């Protein structure tokens, strides 16, 4: 999900090498394994996080506070992808940035494994920082392995790479989730650290197979820029330290002093970035028009991710307290629900690719706008489905596991309609001046959606209530219908993009 920079070069592990990985450069094996283990650690910890936050043997927080923390954490991961990409482009280069990111993530998981609530939040912060640094740069290095965008193996290489993401995401809840829930929470977090250690080791050992350009800093900071950046960073850090010291020593500090500013940033920064790009006088008329169209997609995507990402918080907490988590009498850990989406992605993605190709040959493939609108409607339908298990639970009964599986299935189909299209349209509609930054802008839609969920939770809104779930479902369906109804207007704004 990150943008790729490409260079024409031949070095060990690039096109022209004798040894390959499924017909691809050997460096792909290094990046595949690194990403697989990083996602294993990330999704394993993510599956445990909301359950640990509400568990009597964990932090024993309310469901609302747990959802707020989870949502703020997710929004931070995607928000930090933009400065992560900046570090790769201006300071360290992609290869060094990924190595440093892996070490930070591993340290974060080890900190989570310590039996202390104080260090727990520090661990979450470290994992978010490391994930932001890594996410923006590792896909760039996949692009470096190929001879430009016309290399016939390029798309296949990214497909193999993303299989690594889903393999790690599928296995993590089954292993880390089981150990964390059934044996010891902190041992589960320690397993996540082990996963990242394996990924980092693989990366360092296999980095000789990567393209030489992955070590290059594309646009290094000048001495003046470096000095200015350090001054600004020190100033803001100093302001934060002083402000929190005053709050802490005055005895007024609560968790909301961290959560509220972070959630507000998660909403404000995406808006500021879009406004800055839209008002840039360097953009020509066609680029301005495309950005107007892109705002439609951005807002729709933020609504989609607001609901979709509650699959790991609202739905997980509901399953923990109100679902019959068993199949034919065999009980399974709640965290296993988080493996449903990646296994469905691996099963359905090739089917969707085949369907689009078949429809395209007949001239009947749905447009980008129709796919996007359909994804939004489906994520809304998933929450209308959620109303059934909520009603069952309100009647004093446990809801069947298949209700939750049906919700995750519907959301996954919606994701396959919206997410790949969103990535594609972001690259196609990006103004030339912001070509390398627009993928970070796409991530900000996730940030905005998750931050909105966080704000609702902090405000005391119970996201497991029938009325709220129905309202969110209606919002998504109405947004999807609105995108479809105004498809001709959006299409005209898109210009030559289809």
TrEMBL record:
<feature type="transmembrane region" description="Helical">
    <location>
        <begin position="369"/>
        <end position="388"/>
    </location>
</feature>
<keyword id="KW-0813">Transport</keyword>
<keyword id="KW-1133">Transmembrane helix</keyword>
<feature type="transmembrane region" description="Helical">
    <location>
        <begin position="257"/>
        <end position="277"/>
    </location>
</feature>
<dbReference type="Pfam" id="PF00854">
    <property type="entry name" value="PTR2"/>
</dbReference>
<dbReference type="InterPro" id="IPR050171">
    <property type="entry name" value="MFS_Transporters"/>
</dbReference>
<feature type="transmembrane region" description="Helical">
    <location>
        <begin position="336"/>
        <end position="357"/>
    </location>
</feature>
<feature type="transmembrane region" description="Helical">
    <location>
        <begin position="439"/>
        <end position="461"/>
    </location>
</feature>
<comment type="similarity">
    <text>Belongs to the major facilitator superfamily. Proton-dependent oligopeptide transporter (POT/PTR) (TC 2.A.17) family.</text>
</comment>
<keyword id="KW-1003">Cell membrane</keyword>
<feature type="transmembrane region" description="Helical">
    <location>
        <begin position="120"/>
        <end position="138"/>
    </location>
</feature>
<feature type="transmembrane region" description="Helical">
    <location>
        <begin position="68"/>
        <end position="86"/>
    </location>
</feature>
<feature type="transmembrane region" description="Helical">
    <location>
        <begin position="400"/>
        <end position="418"/>
    </location>
</feature>
<feature type="transmembrane region" description="Helical">
    <location>
        <begin position="98"/>
        <end position="114"/>
    </location>
</feature>
<dbReference type="InterPro" id="IPR000109">
    <property type="entry name" value="POT_fam"/>
</dbReference>
<protein>
    <submittedName>
        <fullName>Oligopeptide:H+ symporter</fullName>
    </submittedName>
</protein>
<dbReference type="InterPro" id="IPR036259">
    <property type="entry name" value="MFS_trans_sf"/>
</dbReference>
<feature type="transmembrane region" description="Helical">
    <location>
        <begin position="43"/>
        <end position="62"/>
    </location>
</feature>
<feature type="transmembrane region" description="Helical">
    <location>
        <begin position="159"/>
        <end position="179"/>
    </location>
</feature>
<feature type="transmembrane region" description="Helical">
    <location>
        <begin position="185"/>
        <end position="205"/>
    </location>
</feature>
<dbReference type="InterPro" id="IPR018456">
    <property type="entry name" value="PTR2_symporter_CS"/>
</dbReference>
<keyword id="KW-0472">Membrane</keyword>
<keyword id="KW-0812">Transmembrane</keyword>
<feature type="transmembrane region" description="Helical">
    <location>
        <begin position="467"/>
        <end position="486"/>
    </location>
</feature>
<dbReference type="InterPro" id="IPR005279">
    <property type="entry name" value="Dipep/tripep_permease"/>
</dbReference>
<feature type="transmembrane region" description="Helical">
    <location>
        <begin position="289"/>
        <end position="308"/>
    </location>
</feature>
């Amino acid at each position: 999900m990150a943008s790729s920079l490409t260079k024409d070069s031949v070095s060990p592990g690039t096109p022209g090498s004798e040894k390959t990985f499924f017909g691809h450069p050997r460096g792909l094996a290094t990046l595949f394994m690194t990403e697989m283990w990083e996602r294993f650690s990330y999704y394993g910890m993510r599956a445990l996080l909301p359950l640990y936050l509400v568990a009597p043997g964990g932090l024993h927080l309310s469901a609302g506070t747990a959802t707020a923390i989870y949502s703020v954490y997710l929004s931070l991961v995607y928000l930090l992808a933009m400065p992560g990409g900046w570090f790769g482009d201006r300071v360290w280069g992609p290869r060094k940035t990924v190595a440093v990111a892996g070490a930070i993530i591993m340290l974060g998981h080890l900190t989570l494994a310590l039996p202390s609530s104080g260090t727990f939040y520090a661990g979450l912060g470290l994992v978010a920082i490391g994930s932001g640094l890594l996410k923006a740069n590792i896909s760039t290095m996949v692009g470096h392995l190929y001879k430009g965008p016309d290399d016939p193996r390029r798309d296949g290489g990214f497909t193999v790479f993303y299989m690594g993401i889903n393999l790690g995401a599928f296995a993590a809840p089954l292993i880390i989730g089981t150990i964390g829930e059934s044996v010891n929470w902190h041992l589960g977090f320690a397993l996540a650290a082990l996963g990242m250690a394996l990924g980092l080791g693989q990366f360092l050992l296999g980095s000789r197979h990567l393209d030489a350009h992955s070590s290059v800093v594309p646009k290094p900071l000048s001495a003046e820029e470096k000095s200015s950046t350090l001054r600004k960073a020190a100033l803001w850090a100093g302001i934060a330290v002083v402000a929190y010291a005053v709050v802490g020593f005055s005895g007024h500090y609560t968790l909301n002093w961290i959560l509220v500013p972070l959630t507000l940033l998660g909403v404000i920064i995406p808006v500021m970035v879009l406004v800055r790009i839209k008002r840039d006088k360097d953009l020509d008329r066609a680029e301005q028009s495309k950005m107007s169209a892109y705002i439609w997609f951005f807002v729709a995507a933020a609504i989609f991710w607001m609901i979709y990402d509650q699959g790991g918080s609202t739905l997980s907490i509901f399953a923990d307290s109100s679902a019959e988590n068993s199949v034919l009498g065999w009980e399974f850990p709640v965290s296993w629900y988080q493996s449903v989406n990646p296994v469905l992605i691996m099963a359905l993605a090739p089917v969707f690719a085949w369907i689009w190709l078949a429809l395209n040959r007949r001239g009947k493939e749905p447009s980008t706008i129709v796919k996007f609108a359909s994804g939004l409607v489906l994520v809304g339908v998933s929450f209308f489905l959620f109303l059934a298990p909520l009603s069952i639970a309100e009647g004093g009964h446990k809801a069947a596991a298949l209700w939750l599986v049906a919700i995750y299935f519907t959301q996954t189909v919606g994701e396959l309609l919206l997410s790949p299209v969103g990535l594609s349209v972001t690259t196609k509609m990006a103004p030339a001046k912001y070509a390398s930054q627009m993928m970070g802008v796409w991530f900000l839609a996730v940030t905005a959606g998750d931050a909105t969920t966080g704000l609702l939770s902090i405000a005391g809104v119970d996201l497991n209530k029938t009325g709220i779930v129905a309202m969110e479902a209606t919002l998504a369906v109405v947004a999807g219908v609105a995108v479809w109804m105004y498809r001709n207007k959006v299409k005209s704004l898109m210009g030559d993009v289809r």
